[in-house]
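A quick aside before the break. I want you to see a complete sequence-to-structure record at least once, exactly as it would be stored in a machine-readable document. Don't worry about memorizing anything.
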Amino acid sequence: MKRTSTYFPKQDEVEAKWRVFDATGQTLGRIARDISVALQGKDKPSYTPHTLTGDFVVVLNASRIRVTGRKLMQKTYYRHSGYVGNLKSFKLKDVLETHPERVITLAVKGMLPRNHQGRQMLRRLRVFADGDHPHQAQVQDQTPETEAAA
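That is the input. The structure line, written in tokens, reads:
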């Protein structure tokens, strides 16, 4: 009797590409979903849960994302230093004005696994507030992906 088994690719057998996402006019949650899927490699046939099969992701124009409803004034981010009474809160509108990269990074971080592999995936994410980035050599011959193309 022949025994069939599932083939799992090893880490050195997986080739990671560089993918570019343009966040202009995109809804925050929808583009964060597409980015997290690309980082995890779930859109590849070689997806393996215990191996980094995802791609490197470059996100452009993070300052031009769109949010629906009243999230600009109601969504709040929290940060705590660990000291008593030192809980800081920030509204989405303020974070978009000062550090628009953090908005996408935090949204994607919430969609990744909370373990060592998830932290490795997050290191493959590069977010830029405008359209310029220093990764031209890695992403040559690629056009920015949008909601319709992805």
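Two observations worth writing down. The mean pLDDT is 91. The longest helix spans residues 28-40. We'll return to this after the break.
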